[in-house]
Amino acid sequence: MKKYFILLSVAALALVSCAKVKDVYTGSPESRQIAFSLLAKPTTKAPVANTVFPTDYHFYVAAYAAGSGDYFDGAEFANESSTTTWSGVSGSKKYWPLNSETLNFLAVTKAGSSTTTFGTDNANYASKVVVALENNKTAQHDLMYACAQASNPSSNVPLTFKHALSWVQFTVSGTAGTGLAVTGIKLNGAAYTGTLTVNLANYNSSSETLTATPSWDATAYASATKENNVSVPNVSSITVDGTARTVGDGLLIVPNPTANGASFTSFVVNYTLDGHAYSVVITPDTADMVMQPGYKYTYNIGITMHEIKVTATVGSWSEASGVAAGI
pLDDT tens digits for 196-220? Predict the structure, then answer.
């Protein structure tokens, strides 16, 4: 079977500057507050499919001043009354430095995380961020990260978020005759907790391009509870015919960080045919269950009178029929 690995598309946030405000961080009245705003209306898989980036989403930011060291870490940014601006929450407002030195930013979304720690020590706030993801089985929050570089507070600076989880999606089609309908799908053996580390390269440089690399802790993943019988949300009775139809919203899961390690064990398809209810356990090839952060894995289920076949495809989260490029 063919697999297509496509770089995920992303939507952008931007830094915007406010009018002159009192600089409570550096003591200068000429500084400008650091804030973020949406350049577009990106979509995100969670918490609700086909919605814009939720206005109740917060994110944490660290900044490193290239050439002079740490600037701030763990600053929390929130939406301002459902506008397009995200600024520092009370007690966490941050301001541009007086000079034009470059700031290198590292950000991660807050939803679903229990603890967020920046830096390897006090001198390297923006070198990495470690996030402990709580049980995301019900909430299905989309954990995301971003980095950006800027030196001019009067210019918009894109802050592009990427997905750190894997998205499992299902479609169904068939030729088993009339009266065939899928009534539910459940995933077995997937993890919904884990420890994510995002390492930022060139954070202490103003001339080299920043790169952020996500990785999940293999030890934490191995000890995490692997959930069984987790239902795909928003599945109603879906009539099966020759046209492939998407089944529910899919599930966001923690990818197995072990090389060639499957990220789940099997899934269960419940369906009715001619008034009778059936349930079948499907175990794809191990290679079709190895997942990477930021990719969408679609399992295409074909049901006939004689057999059930499954093919797997891999793609970005911005396909025309998909839910989410986004943030």
Answer: 999 999 998 889 999 999 999 999 9
